[in-house]
Amino acid sequence: MAGAGKTSVGKALSLELGYEFLDTDKIIETSYGKSKDIIDYQGKDRFRAIEEEVLLSTKFKNTLLATGGSAVFSPLAMEHLRDNSDVIYLEVSFENISERVLDFKERGFIKESHQSIEEAYMERLALYEKYADYSVTNEGSIQDCIQKILSLLDL
């Protein structure tokens, strides 16, 4: 979910572990343009196809990957991630997400036109929980979250 801290925690954790950090949103932006523009001009389905392609092409060797929040809509990509890595869901309450992300329209956020942001959050929540190998609450500092992950993975 946008605002969960995937990029912030991922960057800091990769430095701590000495891993390469990849952010699928940045990979997509570099190769295809801004997520918001792809969604606005080519549609949600095209964006999801691009995101799936990027995820399926990811190779994992000392790599920490921050996915886009909509990655969970691709069962194929999520199975690829689970087969090749540990998938960690950063749990953040809707209230905190709302405080962290003031304008979802500028984020390239995928949701159905009839859905509120909270409804989209609830829809994704079930998918995040389904595909996660581990869940870590990220309601505090980045360093607190990193310590939880390191403890959880016994690193």
Q: Could you give the topology of this structure?
A:
Blueprint: H1 6-17, E1 20-23, H2 24-32, H3 35-42, H4 44-56, E2 63-66, H5 75-84, E3 88-91, H6 94-100, H7 117-131, E4 134-137, H8 142-152
Parallel strand pairs: 1-2, 3-4
Helix pairs in contact: 1-8, 2-4, 3-4, 4-5
Can you describe what's shown?
By secondary structure, the protein is mainly alpha-helical. The chain has a single domain, classed as P-loop containing nucleotide triphosphate hydrolases (Rossmann fold). Helices cover 55% and strands 10% of the residues. It is built from 8 helices and 4 strands; from the N terminus they run αβαααβαβααβα. The chain has helices at residues 6-17, 24-32, 35-42, 44-56, 75-84, 94-100, 117-131, 142-152; strands at residues 20-23, 63-66, 88-91, 134-137. Helix 2 packs across helix 4 (44-56) and helix 3 (35-42) crosses helix 4. The longest helix has 15 residues, at 117-131.
CATH topology: Rossmann fold
How widely separated are the two ends?
Answer: 26 Å
Secondary-structure arrangement, i.e. CATH architecture: 3-Layer(aba) Sandwich
Q: In CATH, what is the homologous superfamily?
A: P-loop containing nucleotide triphosphate hydrolases
Helix/strand structural class: mainly alpha
Mean pLDDT: 92
How many helices? The count is 8
Over all CA atoms, what is the radius of gyration?
15 Å
Determine the fraction of residues in helical runs and give it as a percent range: 40-55%
What is the CATH class name?
Alpha Beta
Beta strand count: 4
Main sheet: strand order: 1-2
Q: Sheet with the most strands? A: 2 strands, parallel
Low-confidence stretches: none
